Amino acid sequence: MNLFAQGFAWIFDPANNVGPNAIGVRLLEHVWITLLTVAIAVVIAVPIGLLIGHTGKGRSLAVGVSGGIRALPTLGLLTLLALWIGLGVQAPIISLVILAIPSVLAGTYSGVEAIDRVTVDAARAQGMTPWQILGRVEVPLALPLIVGGIRAAVLQVVATATLVAYINAGGLGGYAFSGIANQDYAEVLGGSIVVIALAIAFEIVFAALQRLAVPAGLSAGETRRNRRSTRSSAPRASTPVEGTHP
Amino acid sequence: MITATTRRLAATIAVASAAAVALAGCSSSDPLSSGGGSGDSDTIVVGSQAYPSNEIIAELYAQELENEGFTVKKQLNIGQRKAYWPEIENGSIDVFPEYNGNLLNFLLQSDGEDTTTETTTEGINSALADALPSDVKALPSADASDADTYTVTQETADEYGLKSIADLEKIGGTISIAANPEFATAAYGPTGLKEKYGITGEVNQQNDSGGPLTIKAIQDGDSQVADIYSASASIKTENLVTLEDPEHLVPANNVTPIVSEDLDAKAADAIERVNELLTTDALIELNRQNSVEQKSAASVAKAFLQDNDLL
Question: Which chain B residues are Cβ-neighbours of A82 within 8 angstroms?
Fold first, then answer.
């Protein structure tokens, strides 16, 4: 029989959907670990990214440090942390946060850096405080790229969270570990299919979020020239800016 | 630009095809692929698992074979049984240090059968002889055993007065056992524990084969019992207590060389000579030098052979 058919048969076998190792339970754990990890990464990386993007300082330091930590193999880091702080979900969460931070950070500062400086100058010329510039100009304009960074992080984390099961702390990875050990390849494949489906579901949700994150009056793919000719209200903000540009 | 690229491409293709031809030439003249082979050009290929202790044993065999004048090629560190076993079956590897109990269960499971109910060295070896494919055979097992065990920390042993697996009932409730995923489905896992000792156990699945994470689980109290291999140096270095197994729950797992059927008789003698020296204590000491003193498998093996006047 086709291995894929076996994998799907494994997923829909009622025997694999009971008890603490049920697919549903492991799926929820996986979703929870992924969302918690990325939420922590966002809380840490977005403010730093905004600061770097806003001030234009510390970029190379942040890139170097986060990239350097990112280069640590997650499984090794997880093992090391588990030996240090104990088994349980903390060690894998920390390892995955370290994995997620660089994407979110890069999305954030590059989102802010990509904003036309003229727009920021105009906001300042209108008397906005630095906080107002950040909150009303930079964050909304950078939001699509920030969400893009989070989207990349989610994809990495949802795939890598399979390693959490290495120390028996939950998630969908346990099926791969036990399936390989027990030569049950339907289990390995079935578990992997669930992870893939989850990753695709997250992709769809975050792709939609990324589209929603584009501020009104600034939709992706439209050039400034197009907007001026097709819309009458939107360009008003940018017109005086371009007019004052030397 | 285009010509430079094309020239480079052509050169690459030329080198690749030359390499392919050369490799094809090698393989067609490879005396091992046919299994037969004659004369002094024979090379004996010795393999090992990606398991340091196994690598040391492979080094012992390989160095003794070299000492006997055989040309030896080492293919060490080839991963898990699933990865290397086909290489043994097809004759690419001639000598492999194996473990009789676990190998038997692997062969049975590969054929879709249940794991063995035999527990003694003799019982397992006779079942293994039946399960092995026709082109390979097992040489006599060493005294050394690297079997799964039910192991606790000294503190747990003292607290509950544990000596044998049967004493685990003093802890009460469900016993958490930190072990590899294989343990959960093995006959000597929770199912056998219930059958032979009437004790309920569940597996805390740690995937490092009795390594630091598994030991951490019992030291931190996440689990009461850990599956630590009996030849592991950490039983001594971490002050652990291996529980006795009066009901023979865990099958024997003696070091057993698996060799190709047509291996030179002199070579088989050399391997058996080394094997006779391998007791569990000797193996633990070799493992300790390797894992604690950080000496290479090759140098640990060499020193052992010299100490025993084989080199």
Answer: 213, 216
Supply the pTM of this predicted model.
0.76
CB-closest option in B181, B204, B216 to A181: B181
Q: CATH number of A17-215: 1.10.10.410, 3.20.20.70, 1.10.3720.10, 3.90.850.10?
A: 1.10.3720.10
Sorted by where each begins, the domain ranges of chain A are 17-215
Complete domains list, chain B, with CATH: 43-146+252-307 (3.40.190.10), 151-242 (3.40.190.120)
Q: Mean pLDDT, consecutive 10-residue segments, chain A of 246 residues?
A: 87 89 95 97 96 90 84 91 92 95 94 92 93 93 95 96 94 92 89 96 95 77 46 39 36
Q: Does residue A151 contact residue A210 with C-beta atoms inside 8 Å? A: yes
Considering only CB atoms, B206 lies closest to which of A86, A88, A168, namely A168
- Show residues of chain A in contact with B180, CB under 8 Å: 181
ipTM above 0.90, yes or no: no
Judged on CB neighbours under 10 Å (0-12, 13-18, 19+), A159 is middle
Give contacts of A182 with chain B, Cβ < 8 Å: 109, 181-182, 184-185
Q: In sequence order, what are the beta bridge partners of B179? A: B205
Q: How far is B200 from chain A (nearest CA, A)?
A: 16
Q: Are strands B43-47 and B71-75 parallel, antiparallel or unpaired?
A: parallel
